[in-house]
Structure formats: structure tokens, C-alpha cells
Specification:
The complex is a heterotrimer of chains A (about 290), B (about 290) and C (about 270). With about 290 residues, chain A is an alpha+beta fold. Chain A has five helices and 18 strands. In chain A, the strands form four sheets. Chain A has a five-stranded mixed beta barrel. By secondary structure, chain B is an alpha+beta fold. Chain B has a single domain, classed as GHMP Kinase, N-terminal domain (Ribosomal Protein S5, domain 2, 2-Layer Sandwich), CATH 3.30.230. With about 270 residues, chain C is of the alpha+beta class. Chain C has one domain: 2-Layer Sandwich (Ribosomal Protein S5, domain 2), CATH 3.30.230. Helices cover about 25% and strands about 25% of the residues of chain C. In chain C, the strands form two sheets. Chain C has a five-stranded mixed beta sheet. Chain C is globular. The chains are: A alpha+beta (about 290), B alpha+beta (about 290), C alpha+beta (about 270). The interface between B and C is large, with 42 and 38 residues. Strand 14 of chain B pairs antiparallel with strand 9 of chain C, so a sheet runs across the interface.
Chain lengths: ~290, ~290, ~270
């Protein structure tokens, strides 16, 4: 039995880069970005008396003549090709509704999943009846954004063996803006676990699978117990992710791995203590800077 | 209660982890998440405390008012509990959504304090049969992340510890009537003895084992839980089974045994912390920005 | 505050004369035999009288007497649920309501359901739910109403027993019957199935070990479906109390079984000759 009680401390963010106060590109709603009429109005802005004004709090981004403001704290705005992790909320006719941290529930059509055994054929009425056997309410999936509907809802697909239903593991939810866009979002970390960094801020940690069973087509989930050592690695990674997200550090494979390494001197359950968290994140950032420089 | 969805495979993962005494966040079965406690956070109360346990946050304010003693106990004051589940904590509490949970929580609190030793009610009596102090204990849930009962009871104990009830003097006037005079010196006040105030331990039965301080995900895997309120001496003041499942008699005995041990151990760091905060004097309060 | 918040409460205009009685000498003594001749420290439950099918309008009903504690229970449903917003439609919903008649206790109660009644209803709900096969009744609700006519102690325990009997009488699918039993711990000794005076009496003032315990039990599955205690008890006497209550439940089990069998026999059509 362990109960750690303490007085609260005022938290400060661990940051080695220039402090947020010095940044000129952060705006709040109503701030005039420019009064030059030569620019085009992008997301997060509006034109008031010929002045381009921000409508959200966030970071100004300029691409040629287009000015956008990207909100730093936001729900997930999906783009085609994004990798997402989501949870099934509803089974409907011919489609599943998926919660992906975006404004509207995303949709996974029956026609955009792989059939068990990798069969390629038109979906029959029989398939519609057995939809619940593939994916049930509450199940987690990894998928890719196939298209974006006009109202902003996302259409997903799992037509690749790397996508599909997720088995045993841990879901960590962090802010989508902390996920760094990369070539691949699937990583087998050398510490002994695998990670899916969903662009929507849902991160899935799971034990590195052994021999991939290709026959199952992504619908088979093993319910075999996972070894204690794997569990410990996953729990440590989970707490590291939460530490990174608490201190607003970009999350990608290297930062997660550095954070994991820095945390090794502490017990897994101690990582979430504020002072340990600060220490680990500080170490991680130092390592990241060293690596860059 | 705020609920989360958990898929079957995740449940299996959590279940096996608890079987191996390694929970998803690295804790053992009898470990609490780390807890932050601060007293005297609201100036308009006579005593207040804010407790956060993981992402669960509870604010307790205590107001002392002068009332009439209950006819059955003319020489005792009394406590009133009210738990508010605001929609801030989770959208499910919006409107009347939180009312049922609030009722459940406050009824349990009445049961927990329904004994002679938790709070010395006789000290709250001002004049027998006429005036007594009524302590209104108002609990506000700010955030829900599982284990409300434990966080709430710790917050109540901390708030009672910090409660300062002004001293009153009763003077008889010429006609034989009584007059109540409130001391205007803010330091002339009465403190409560909180040594015997119990703490609640919630034990969630998950698989064949039980865990303390369950997160919402673990709660979703559990069919039934037992709440036990324990004093520092290990006396049990209230036991209650919660949730839709049933429990084996054997596991009830195991759970009460664990509950007693954990509950007893919970008082030690709590009292130490409260005394430490008291001795620090006027420290800069962190309040709600932590 | 624990009262009906939607109403303005006027001052209480009347008080029970009991308050003015010259100190009712502690009716409940902590030594010697109990007022009704039962033995202390023994699993000596009051003889119970139960009968099913009291209210013909209800789907199922039961009446129960244990000493002077008298209560009745009606079960309505299963029928289509009223609350549509519930997302979990795969399971039936059980609603419980427990009320005290205003004249059931020594002091008059009010018709408005107080917070104590609500708490009893909740306990009743939690005690009954594990025994019901609610998954067999999707999208429907089952209502259980308990009315306490005379409160002479251990009401919740008997309400649980009575309600499970009424549910069985209504033909609701159940895994097991639910039986209730209560004890009152008083120092080193205890009384099973306490009367109102024993329940609310002060007992021996000196002792710290004062508590009440109510347990709901599924006898053939050997599972505890409800447990509630208040007061102060050591963990040892709590565990002992749970064991005692389980024993008490087994004592009334045959009576309940018989009453139910009798009700079934009465309802059965005469066996056809062919």
C-alpha cells in the first residue's frame, strides 16, 4: 500500500526552447494579423475593415499569400492519409460510427474494411448481418482517413493489413497537436513494445506482435495473457507519454524513446509524480537537442 | 457516474494486469495515485479543502451556522452533507443528471458519520435545547476520474481540520432571556478534533482480486465494489456494497481486511500533511491553478 | 440538504408526544434475554409469515410479517421502458421504490419520500439486481414497489426478502431468491433481526462497538448481493456479523421456498386426466 500525499505546487512547463512569451506568431481572437490586403484569408481568420484578423487563439502560418491560424488546442481536423486510432460507438447498416476525437463521429463503411481471410468480393447482405462479429461497440481500431465529407466528418478505411481491430494494449489520449507528422506512425520500439501514434491524438501501445497471422485480415485478437515484462514496458511508455503531453513536448518515436530511457531510473508508478515528470522531460529535451545539434 | 467505454480486449489486458499486481499505470493493487491536498482555499467558508487524486478533483467547503438542536439530541449539534455533481465535472451531470449520484454520495456520508466518535457533536452545542452549531459540509465535484468516495472523504477530513468556528458567549439579560454574542477576534475560535474522522476506501473487485483507487477504466471492468470507511484506529464506521454485481462471502472478508489495513494507513500521511501545512503558516496558496 | 428541495418547508407545527415523555428508560438493555424472549448472541430470527398474491392487479405481489414488522411488495412489468435515452438497451431496467406509511414508525413520517427512503430504495435495487436475469428482458422495465406498513426493525432486510418473493411470484426470471437479514452489534454481544427499539436504542453507552449491519444474500449461489452497515464496528465483528447474517438467511430460506411453492401450486391448473 502506498499513498503519496502532498501540498500542491505551482507547475511550470519544462522548456529549453525560447519561452512562449517571446513568440510573435501566437495570436488571440481579434488580433490583427496584417492590414496588407495582398494576403488571402485562410482558416482561423476573418476580414474586418480590410484587416486580416484572427478568429482563434493559435499559431499564425503563412504559405505564400495564404495566412491561416492553427489553433493549438483543438479537436482533430483530419486530412486524407492520416493514421487514426478510434473507438466504435455505433453499428449501423453498412457502416460503423467511430469516435476519433474529431468534431463529428467518423464513418467506417463496410465496403472499406478487409473481409476476414482477405477475401475480395462485393459485400453481401449476409455481411451486413455479421458486422457485429467484426467490430462491436467499444472496440478500438486503427485506420486511415480515406476522404473528408463536406461537413468535416471523416470516412475511414482499414484496407491494409497494418490497420484493423486492436487487441490487448493501452490507449493514451493526448492533444492531436502534439503528434508529430511522420512518414510512418507505426513503430516497433526497441524497448520491447509497439506504438501507433494516431494523428488524432489517440496513441495505442501494445506488445510487439510475433509472427503476423495474415489469414485473419485484422480481425483476430489474441486474449492470451501478456508477460509481466511486456506489461511493465507498456505501462512505463504510457506514463512517459502522459509526462510528455503534460509538458507539451512533441510526441514521435525518438522523443518517446528518449523519455523512456530517461525514466528508467524511476519506478513506473513514480513517473507521474510532478517532480519526476519534470526531471524526465528535462532530460528528454536535452537529449533531443543534442541529437539535433 | 461518468463512464468510459472499454473494449473486450482492453478489459482482458486490465484484468490480467491486476492479476499480476501491475496495473496499467504501473501501480500495484493497493496503491493510490498521488494526491494533492490544500486547505483554506475558499475565503468565504469556515473551513475548506481541495483534493485532487489523479484527475479527480473535489472541493469541500464547510459553513458553520447557528441552529436549533434536534429534539432527540438536545445537547448536540449536527452535520449536514450535500454533494453537488456539477456539469463541469462531466457533461453527463448536466441538468438533473448528477442528482442521483449526488444523493447517493451524500446519503453515504450521513451513514459514515452516523456514530458517536467521528465528530464530537457535544462540542457543537451552544446552549442545551436552544442553540447549536450546524456544520454544512458542501462537496463539489470538479472533475471525475474515478474513486470519488475516497477523494471526497479525504477532502472532508482536511476541511474539518481547517474549520475554525468562532467562539460565542451567552449572556443573560435583565428579563432572563439569553443573548448570543459572537467573538469579534478572528483568532478566538474553536477547532474540531478530526482524529476520529474516518476515511473511505473503495475496493473494486476486478477478476479475482480487488484494487483500491480504481480509475474509470478499471471501474468499467468491475462488477461490484465495496466501500469501507475506516478510522485511524481501524474501526469500521460504514460498509456498503456498490454496483450491480454480487460478491462471494469470502471475498468480502478479504476486502474488509484490506480496507481496514489501507484505511488505517491512509490517515498517517494525511494527518502529517495537514499538520505540516498548518505549521508552514501563511504559505502562498496554489488554489485552482495547480 | 437532504430534504425535498423543490418545496418550501414550513415550520414543524406538531411534535410527537414521545419527546415529552419523562426519558423512556433505555428499553434496550444490553444484558439478559431480549424483550420478546429471543436469545441474544444466537441466530434467533423472528418467525416470519409470508404469502404471495396479495394484490390481484399486480403482476406479482407478496406480504410479509416478521414480528411486528409488516410490509407488502408489488411487482409490475416487464413492460416497455419509459426512459428511451438509456443507451444500453440490451438489458432490462429495474426500478425500485420503497416507502414508509406515515404511521409505520413511532413518529409520524410524511408522505413525501425522504432521503432515507430513497437510500433504502437504492439499497433494495442493488441487492435485487444481481439476482435477476435482466438480459432476458431487453428494452423493458420491471418495477418493484415496497410499502412498509409497520416498522418494527430490520425493515430493509425483510423488504429485500419480500421483494424477491414478489419478483418470483411475478414470474420474472431469476438466478436465485434474495434473502435479507440484519443484526445489531452491541459491544461484545449481538442481536439478530433487531426490533425497532433494539435497532435505535443507545445500547450500553460505554462500549465502542456499536453498529448495524444489513445483508442481502443469494442462498443457493452463495453470493452476497447487498451489504450495508453504519455505526462503529471492529473489522472482526463485522466479518462475524456477515457470517451470522448468512446463517440467519438460511433459517428463513425454507419458509420462503414453501410459501412460493404454495403459490405456484395454487396457480397451477389441475393436471389433465389424459
Amino acid at each position: 500500500m502506498a499513498a503519496d500525499m502532498r501540498l500542491p505546487n505551482i507547475r511550470k512547463l519544462v522548456s529549453l526552447s525560447l519561452s512562449a512569451g517571446d513568440r510573435r506568431d501566437l495570436v488571440v481572437p481579434g488580433d490583427v494579423i496584417t492590414s496588407d490586403s495582398g494576403f488571402m484569408r485562410g482558416h482561423g481568420t476573418y476580414v474586418d475593415e480590410e484587416k486580416l484578423t484572427a478568429s482563434v487563439a493559435g499559431e499564425v502560418q503563412r504559405v505564400d499569400k495564404l495566412i491561416c491560424v492553427r489553433p493549438l488546442k483543438t479537436r482533430f481536423n483530419g486530412e486524407v492519409g492520416d493514421v487514426v486510432v478510434g473507438r466504435i460507438t455505433e453499428v449501423q447498416q453498412k457502416r460503423w460510427k467511430v469516435e476519433t476525437n474529431s468534431r463529428l463521429d467518423s464513418i467506417l463503411l463496410l465496403s472499406s474494411v478487409n473481409l476476414p481471410g482477405g477475401e475480395l468480393r462485393r459485400r453481401s447482405a449476409e455481411d451486413e448481418l455479421t458486422m457485429r462479429e467484426y467490430l462491436l461497440e467499444g472496440d478500438l481500431i486503427s485506420a486511415e482517413v480515406q476522404s473528408v465529407f463536406s461537413d468535416g466528418a471523416l470516412s475511414l478505411h482499414t484496407r491494409s493489413l497494418k490497420y484493423g481491430k486492436l487487441g490487448q494494449g493501452v490507449l493514451v489520449q493526448i492533444s492531436p497537436s502534439l503528434i508529430k507528422r511522420q512518414k510512418t506512425h507505426f513503430h516497433n520500439l526497441p524497448c520491447g513494445a509497439s506504438i501507433i501514434l494516431g494523428n488524432n491524438g489517440f496513441v495505442w501501445l501494445y506488445p510487439t506482435p510475433g509472427q503476423q497471422d495474415e489469414e485473419a485480415g485484422g480481425f483476430y485478437t489474441s486474449l492470451e495473457p501478456i508477460s509481466l515484462s511486456d506489461r511493465e514496458v507498456i505501462s512505463r511508455l504510457r506514463n512517459c507519454l502522459l509526462a510528455l503531453s503534460a509538458h507539451k513536448v512533441l510526441v514521435f518515436d525518438t522523443s518517446v524513446l528518449y523519455c523512456y530511457e530517461s525514466s528508467l531510473q524511476h519506478q513506473v508508478k513514480d513517473i507521474l509524480k510532478p517532480e519526476v515528470m519534470e526531471e524526465i522531460v528535462m532530460l528528454t529535451q536535452q537529449k533531443l537537442i543534442e541529437q539535433e545539434g | 457516474m461518468a463512464t468510459v467505454q472499454v473494449s473486450e480486449a482492453e478489459k482482458v489486458y486490465i484484468l490480467h494486469g491486476i492479476r499480476d499486481d501491475l496495473r496499467v499505470d504501473g501501480r500495484g493493487c493497493e496503491d493510490y495515485r498521488h494526491m494533492e491536498i490544500e486547505t483554506d482555499v475558499v475565503s468565504n467558508t469556515d473551513g475548506s479543502a481541495k483534493v485532487s487524486l489523479g484527475h479527480t478533483a473535489v472541493l469541500v467547503g464547510i459553513k458553520a451556522e447557528i441552529g436549533k438542536p434536534r429534539p432527540m439530541a438536545p445537547n448536540e449539534g449536527y452535520l449536514e452533507f450535500f454533494v453537488d455533481c456539477s456539469a463541469n465535472a462531466t457533461p453527463e451531470f448536466e441538468g438533473r443528471g448528477g442528482e442521483e449520484l449526488g444523493k447517493e454520495l451524500s446519503n453515504t456520508l450521513y451513514k459514515v458519520f452516523n456514530n458517536k466518535h467521528s465528530v464530537d457533536l457535544k462540542k457543537l452545542c451552544i446552549s442545551k435545547g436552544e442553540h447549536c452549531w450546524v456544520l454544512y459540509v458542501d462537496v463539489l465535484l470538479l472533475q471525475c476520474d474515478g474513486n470519488l468516495y475516497d477523494a471526497m472523504s479525504v477532502a472532508i477530513k482536511a476541511a474539518l481540520f481547517s474549520t475554525k468556528i468562532p467562539k460565542v458567549h451567552i449572556s443573560n439579560d435583565e428579563e432572563g432571556g439569553k443573548e448570543i454574542e459572537l467573538s469579534d477576534d478572528p483568532f478566538d475560535c474553536m477547532r474540531l478534533d478530526v482524529e476520529n474522522v474516518p476515511c473511505i476506501v473503495t475496493l473494486c473487485k476486478v477478476g479475482h482480486r480487488h484494487v483500491v483507487d480504481a480509475t474509470l477504466q478499471e471501474k468499467a471492468c468491475s462488477v461490484a465494489s465495496l466501500i469501507i470507511s475506516v478510522t485511524h484506529k481501524g474501526t469500521v464506521t460504514c460498509v456498503r456494497k456498490m454496483g450491480g454485481g454480487s460478491l462471494d462471502p469470502e471475498s468480502i472478508f478479504e476486502m474488509t481486511e484490506t480496507g481496514k489495513r489501507v484505511g488505517k494507513a491512509l490517515h498517517v500521511p494525511l494527518m502529517k500533511l495537514l499538520q505540516q501545512e498548518e505549521s508552514l503558516g501563511t504559505r502562498q496558496k496554489v488554489g485552482f491553478l495547480g | 440538504m437532504p430534504v425535498d428541495t423543490r418545496r418550501v418547508r414550513g415550520p414543524e407545527v406538531s411534535q410527537s408526544p414521545l419527546l415529552f415523555a419523562c426519558k423512556p428508560a433505555a428499553v434496550f438493555s444490553s444484558h439478559g434475554p431480549r424483550a420478546d424472549g429471543r436469545q441474544r448472541d444466537q441466530v434467533d430470527v423472528r418467525p416470519v409469515f409470508v404469502r404471495c398474491g396479495l394484490v390481484s392487479q399486480a403482476k406479482g405481489s407478496a406480504y410479509m410479517e416478521a414480528g411486528d414488522t409488516k410490509l407488502m411488495c408489488c411487482v409490475y412489468g416487464p413492460r416497455e421502458t419509459e426512459r428511451k435515452d438509456d443507451t444500453d438497451m440490451k438489458c432490462g431496467r429495474l426500478t425500485t421504490d420503497m416507502r414508509f406509511a406515515p404511521f409505520s414508525c413511532p413518529e409520524r413520517g410524511s408522505w413525501i419520500q425522504g432521503s432515507q427512503d430513497k437510500d433504502f430504495s437504492l439499497m433494495l435495487h442493488e441487492s435485487l439486481q444481481p439476482a435477476l436475469c435482466l438480459h432476458k428482458y431487453p428494452r423493458s422495465q420491471i418495477e418493484v414497489n415496497v410499502m412498509v406498513l409497520e416498522n418494527s426493525g430490520s425493515v430493509l432486510a425483510h423488504a429485500v426478502t419480500c421483494a424477491s418473493l414478489a419478483l418470483a411470484d411475478a414470474g420474472i426470471e431469476m438466478y436465485d431468491l434474495v434473502l435479507g437479514c440484519a443484526i445489531r452489534q452491541d459491544g461484545a454481544s449481538y442481536v439478530v433481526d433487531p426490533t425497532y427499539a433494539e435497532e435505535n436504542g443507545n445500547g450500553s453507552d460505554s462500549s465502542d462497538n456499536q453498529g448495524r449491519l444489513t445483508l442481502a444474500f443469494l442462498p443457493s449461489l452463495n453470493q452476497v448481493s447487498g451489504l450495508q452497515s453504519d455505526g462503529e464496528m471492529t473489522e472482526e465483528s463485522l466479518s462475524a456479523g456477515v457470517r451470522t447474517c448468512i446463517e440467519g438467511c438460511y433459517k428463513i430460506y425454507p419458509v420462503i421456498q414453501q410459501a412460493l411453492a404454495k403459490a405456484v401450486r395454487r396457480a397451477a391448473p389441475p393436471p389433465s386426466e389424459s
